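Hi C.,

You asked whether I'd gotten around to modeling the 291-residue construct. I have! Everything is below, sequence then structure, no commentary in between.
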Amino acid sequence: MTQPSTIVRGLDRGDHLRTALALAAAGVPVLPLRAGKVPFGNCPACRDNACGGRPNMKTPGPCCCSHVCHGWAAATTDPAVLTSRRWAPIWGQAQAVAYHPGGAGLTVVDLDNADAVTWARQTLPATRTVPTTRGEHWLYRGAMQSVNGVRPGVDIKSLMAYARWLGPGTGTMTDLPEAVRAMTVKRPSTVRPAPHGITVPAPVGGAECRHRAPAFLDRGIAMAEQRITDAPSAVHTTVYRTFLAVLSVHGRCGCLTDNHVARLFSAAQAKGESPRHCTDAWTNARATLGL
């Protein structure tokens, strides 16, 4: 795989397939976008997640569709797929090329306005920058969780996300700084509902909560992740019931941390759940238990 720092230069934006093939050759997973800068809609076999999974997710799932209908998860570096009979007509309709930053080992800090750009210049280490319609993309070497709205006008696009290809940009790409990673810790509610410090009286007699034993809690979270990952169908229901089960055991003693909840949300989103659906399932489970 070509190093991310040598991401393709000098390509004509008008020839989307040629651009996509050149990016793929550099090790950057790509996909076409339709009008509105959004992925192409699901094919009939995969609509409403009827297929039970997504291709290229690197997680279990029965879907074997090779069509370009799974958003960021359809991004590929395989020229045979990009030029296949299924994909060929799509390129004729494409309005832009997108890429999966996390799949290329990159993180994009998407700065959506002039104020956000000013903030980045004052706060973040310099790196390669790409002009956008309203601001800039700052590209760093290294992948991380994608989060929208970490601060006004700032999104982070890396794993499980796509970014529009707008050219190679200028400047020397640098390693992903801790300052960018830290933004997702400071603003967890942009991805999932924060536990909001579930507080209850201490156990009678002041005994230590048994759930705080690392082995007990970690085993429970791992089992919950696996249950979501292994769901062959009814993903919405499985996610809700799993959240409900976790909260029924661990929700009243305050032992769940932000990291535990993030693991559950990541497992759910890897199965196709949107951040909104995760938030709704978590909120409904808490309401059911009266938390």
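If it helps when you're writing up: The radius of gyration is 21 Å.

Thanks,
B.
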